[in-house]
Specification:
There is one protein chain. The chain is an alpha/beta fold. 34% of the residues lie in helices and 16% in strands. Strand 5, helix 5 and strand 6 form a beta-alpha-beta unit. The longest helix is centred in the C-terminal third of the chain and has 11 residues.
């Protein structure tokens, strides 16, 4: 014999129990949050615009051998829309690129273990989906004359050291136009 379907009040508080004073079945919590929020979300039309979620950010890999410049880049890239991960040598940059997806690679040319030139060649010659990642080279005075050669092997753009907030932000926004309002 079939019984009548249980109501939400019966399920939450038992058939004989009443909700605590001031609390209705809609205010009760389950492991996913308030039931009213869930039911409201289910009743909402599917065509509403989606706002940016908490994990929708631009991922930047910073490969910089000098601790001072890493700190400067950390400050310059501070934005709620940017997630920057720092490594201090070229091999670590290549290893991390193989494990995670990034939107931009900020690359110092004078890295230990694997130079910036070797990283650029490795990235561009790899047969991976991220082989076309934009690479923004960080060039010091000694390397500025090599900018053309570095761009011919696969560096997308470059900026000079010492770093300028305005210049770096312009270069990043040029490569990733979605960050024009990120507050860099």
């Amino acid at each position: 014999m079939r019984t009548t379907p249980a109501k939400v009040d019966d399920w939450l508080f038992g058939q004989d129990d009443n909700p605590p004073a001031g609390e209705t079945a809609e205010d009760a919590f389950d492991s996913f949050g308030p039931i009213t929020d869930i039911s409201r979300a289910l009743q909402r039309p599917a065509h509403q615009p989606v706002t940016q979620g908490p994990h929708d950010f631009t991922r930047i890999l910073v490969a910089e051998g000098d601790a001072y410049h890493r700190r400067v880049l950390r400050v310059l890239l501070a934005s709620p829309r940017v997630s920057a991960i720092e490594v201090e040598d070229g091999q670590a940059a290549v290893d991390l690129l193989a494990l995670r997806s990034f939107d931009l690679l900020l690359l110092d040319m004078d890295l230990p273990q694997m130079t910036g030139v070797e990283v650029i060649r490795w990235v561009r010659r790899s047969s991976t989906p991220w082989a076309d990642i934009p690479i923004l080279g960080l060039l010091n005075d000694k390397r500025r004359h090599e900018a053309g050669k570095l761009m011919s092997i696969g560096m997308t753009d470059w900026t000079a050291k010492p770093l300028s907030r305005h210049h770096l932000a312009d270069k990043i926004v040029h490569l990733l136009p979605g960050l024009y309002d990120a507050g860099l």
